[in-house]
Amino acid sequence: QVRLVESGGGLVQPGGSLRLSCAASGSIFSINAMAWYRQPPGKQRELVAFTTTGGSTNYADSVKGRFTISRDYAKNTVYLQMNSLKPEDTAVYYCYSELSTSYMNAARAHWGPGTQVTVSS
């Protein structure tokens, strides 16, 4: 069993900052990638930031220069530092990991339950 648990969401004023964390636990053999997605109210889930174990990162255009994704490989944890937050960043943020639980199994997607981020004055 694999579990992803997000933390760090909450209410913040426009221009403020938040740091999200997501820890993966359980029977993890290897992690290929970790990422953050978000789902604004009434909209579809979208990619925010993505990082591979090889060190590649990718950001949505809407967050470039404001958000930074990073990983602690020893802790199987991914972070999302969010600065200069805007009301349009309001969403449920989901942690994603592509990982395998055994050398015999192919990597597959795992999702966290999500954490609410609200940007409002």
Show the helix and strand layout:
Blueprint: E1 2-7, E2 10-12, E3 18-26, E4 30-39, E5 46-52, E6 57-59, E7 67-72, E8 77-82, E9 91-100, E10 108-111, E11 115-119
Parallel strand pairs: 2-11
Antiparallel strand pairs: 1-3, 3-8, 4-5, 4-9, 5-6, 7-8, 9-10, 9-11
Overview of this protein structure:
There is one protein chain. The chain is elongated, with a radius of gyration of 14 Å. Helix content is 0%, strand content 57%. It has no helices and eleven strands. By secondary structure, it is mostly beta strands. The strands form two sheets. Strands 2, 4, 5, 6, 9, 10 and 11 form a seven-stranded mixed β-sheet that branches. A four-stranded antiparallel β-sheet has the order 1-3-8-7, with no helix packed on it. The model has no long low-confidence stretch (mean pLDDT 96).
Helix content: under 10%
**Overall body shape:** elongated
Question: What average pLDDT do the residues reach?
Answer: 96
Helix/strand class: mainly beta
Distance between the termini: 40 Å
Give me the strand/helix succession: EEEEEEEEEEE
Query: What low-confidence regions span 5 or more consecutive residues with pLDDT below 50?
Result: none
Percentage beta strand: over 45%
Q: What is the count of helical runs?
A: 0
Radius of gyration using CA atoms only: 14 Å
Main sheet makeup: 7 strands, mixed
Extended strand count:
11
Features of the shown structure:
121 residues; mainly beta; 4-stranded antiparallel sheet; 11 strands
In short:
This protein is mostly beta strands and 121 residues long. 0% of the residues lie in helices and 57% in strands.
